[in-house]
Amino acid sequence: MKYQQVVGMDIAKDSVQASRFDGTTFFDFSFPNQEKSFLKEVQKSIPKSDPSHTLFVMEATGAYHLKLATTLYKKGYSVAVVNPFIIKKYAEMLLKRAKTDRKDARLIAQFGFYQEVTLFAPKESMAEEITQVLKGLDQLKKERTNLKNYREAFTCHNEINPVVRDIYQKQLEEIEKAIKTLEAEAKRLVSQYAPKEYQLLLSIKGIGKCSATALLGLLQKMDRFSRGKEVASFLGLAPQISQSGKDKGKAWLSKKGNGYLRRLLYLAALSASRSNAQCRELYQRLLAKGKPKKVALIAVANKLLRQAFAVLKSGCPYDPHYLKLKSNLEVVLT
């Protein structure tokens, strides 16, 4: 869809620099990044028109862009949230040298006017809550690992200061308690948000409670994807292949998706390579071809993700014999 005007936004913690572009001229304006005032400031700075004629484009900036994007979406405006890496490459393509907030806003507006973008839609509120709980769990588990490593380092000495020992022990106990609390909260949320989908995911050998919860929280019910390849690409589990230059013939992961979910699926692949019949067959076949174990496990993680997509789309539990039954039926019919 071609919009009459595009508003590019360079968002910081406390302020927003914006630029409206109609294909010919830029109109620059700025306002505080405060939920109570930014909608009024935005509407004051753009001509009165049908919201469907205006597109707002902004970079993904952690949590700073989220309130603005959600508010504009709820008011009926079209919003696009773009990966900053894409904007950076677009600037390099145009040979841009200067980098200021105003020029960045103009560049984002120009990108949105001439390039095709994917429109933003906020997560369902409960899926967002699950995501918040998962981020908290991930942070706490990292802190637990760090504390254990620090405590282990002190054991190299003959004597450990009792105050230091007690502090580390107390912190570890508090973190363990917090982890159990968040795990219980994640279980409560997912049982309310998508109980059927949760059980479908658990029917896949290798996907456990944590992985199933993360898939539903971060990817919701995968409704916006039409193929399993799209999910793998979105999450950064699809191989990126070079057919030219010094890297010709090489392949690597794009790693452009959510790193936390990729780590969980990699860990799930360790289990699936033994317990999931299709994943085990894939893993052993790749090892027989001489592929490194890590490469084979990443392929298994990709397959697990596609299996998850398949059970959510079909609404049927995972059946390890499905492909064999399907092929046998085709032979009979032909």
From TrEMBL:
Q: Name one GO biological process term.
A: DNA transposition
Listed A to Z, the keywords are: Coiled coil
Q: Which residues form a coiled coil?
A: 123-192
Transposase IS110-like N-terminal domain segment(s): 7-150
Q: Give the stretches traversing the membrane.
A: none
Transposase IS116/IS110/IS902 C-terminal domain: from which residue to which, for each copy?
199-284
One GO term in the molecular function aspect is: transposase activity
Among PANTHER family, the record links this protein to: PUTATIVE TRANSPOSASE FOR IS117-RELATED, TRANSPOSASE FOR INSERTION SEQUENCE ELEMENT IS1111A
Query: In its UniProt entry, what is this protein called?
Result: IS110 family transposase
